[in-house]
Amino acid sequence: MRKVWPLLAAVALLVPISLVHGQQPQQQKPLDIYFIDTEGGQATLFVSPSGQSMLVDTGFPGNQGAATPAEANAPGIMRDADRITAVLKQANVIVLDYMVITHYHADHAGNAAELAHRIPVRHFVDHGPYTVEMQANRDAPYLSYQPVRERAHTIVPKPGDKIPVVGLDVRVVSAAGDVLTEPMVGVPGAGAPNPLCRDAKLKEQDATPENFESIGLVIRYGSFRLLDLGDLTWNQEHALACPNNLIGTFTVFHTTRHGDPHSGAPQLVYAIRARVALMNNGERKGGSPEYWQTVHEAPGLEDFWQLHRSAAGGAEHNSPEQFLANLNETDHGHNIKMSVRADGSFTMTNARTGFTKEYPARGGAPR
Length: 367
Ligand SMILES: [Zn+2]
What we know:
Layout: H1 4-14, H2 17-20, E1 31-35, E2 44-47, E3 53-56, H3 69-72, H4 79-90, E4 96-100, H5 106-109, H6 112-118, E5 121-125, H7 140-151, E6 154-155, E7 162-163, E8 169-175, E9 178-179, E10 192-193, E11 216-221, E12 224-228, H8 234-241, E13 244-245, E14 252-254, H9 266-269, E15 276-279, H10 289-296, E16 303-306, E17 336-340, E18 346-350, E19 356-359
Parallel strand pairs: 3-4, 4-5, 5-6, 12-14, 14-15, 15-16
Antiparallel strand pairs: 1-2, 1-17, 2-3, 7-8, 8-9, 8-11, 10-13, 11-12, 17-18, 18-19
The structure holds zinc ion.
Residues 42, 105, 107-108, 231, 257-258 line the site of zinc ion.
C-alpha cells in the first residue's frame, strides 16, 4: 500500500477536475482588450484571462483633443479619466496591476495622476524619471505624474524585458530611445531578412523628441500577437524591421502614433502581416490619408478598424462605417472591444452600433 499511494496521487493530478466531477471542462476566460476613445490620445485596457489588468496610457487631461478650442478648454471636465473609469468598472477591474505610460505627452500621460487617485495601481511602467521636453508649455503632464511615480513601485524596462502580467507574455521592444537589436526568440517570422528594406525610406525626426522615448510593446496570448509601439518614430520602426524583421508577424497592429505620417514606415507595416489594424486617431488627430493607405495596402490585412472617422481621410481614406467607432458629427466616446480566446480566435465589437465580427483562429501561429 505504501508504494501505491504516490502512484495514485500522481494519477489524480493528471485527471482534470472536470472529469472527476463528470462535467464539461469550464470555459476559460478570454483576454479582453478595450480600445478606449480619447479623441486621438491613447488608453488601452488589457484584462488577462488570469484576471490581472494592464492599462496602456491614460488619454488627455481635461477636455483636450476636443474639436474646438472653446470645447477643449472648457473647465471642470475630466473627459478621458471618466471614460477610462467607466471601462474599468465595466470590466470589473478594482485594482490596476500595471499602468504603462509609454511617454510623457499629454495625450498619453494626461490622467496618470488623476487615475492613481481613483484606483489602486500596483506597478507603474515608464521610460524613466525625465522628459526631453521641459518647455513650460510641454512639461505639465510629466510634472503632474512625477510625484505619483516617485511614491509608487515603478518599473523602468529595457528593450527585451518582460512585464510580468500573469497569463500573458508582454515584451518591451522599445524604451527611452533604444529598440531591440536581436530578433525575438520563438516568434514566427522574427529574424527573417526583410526585402522591403532595399528601397526603404527614412524620415527626418520632427520637433517632438518625447515620441522617440516611447515604450513599445508586444502582447502575446497563445498564437495571438498584438503590436503597440506608442508614438515611436518612423526611423525606429525601420530599425525594428530592417535589415531583418526583429519582431515577427502579428495578429493585430495598433497603429503607431495615431496614424500620423511621422510614423507608419511601410517596411515595418507590410512586414508584420497583421490580420487586423486598429487606429487610435481622433477626428483631426492622426488618421492621415498617407498612413491609412499604407495600412490598407498591407499584405494579409482583413479589416482596418478606427476609433474615429478621420476628417482628413475623406471618402477615400476611411474604412466602411461599421468599422468606425465614432463618426464625429453625432457621437464621441465609443470604444472598440476585442475578446481573444485561447485557441487564437477573437471577436471585435463596435460599441457605437453593437456590430461584431468573428475572426476564426488560423492554423497554428499567425502568418
Ligand atoms: Zn500621442
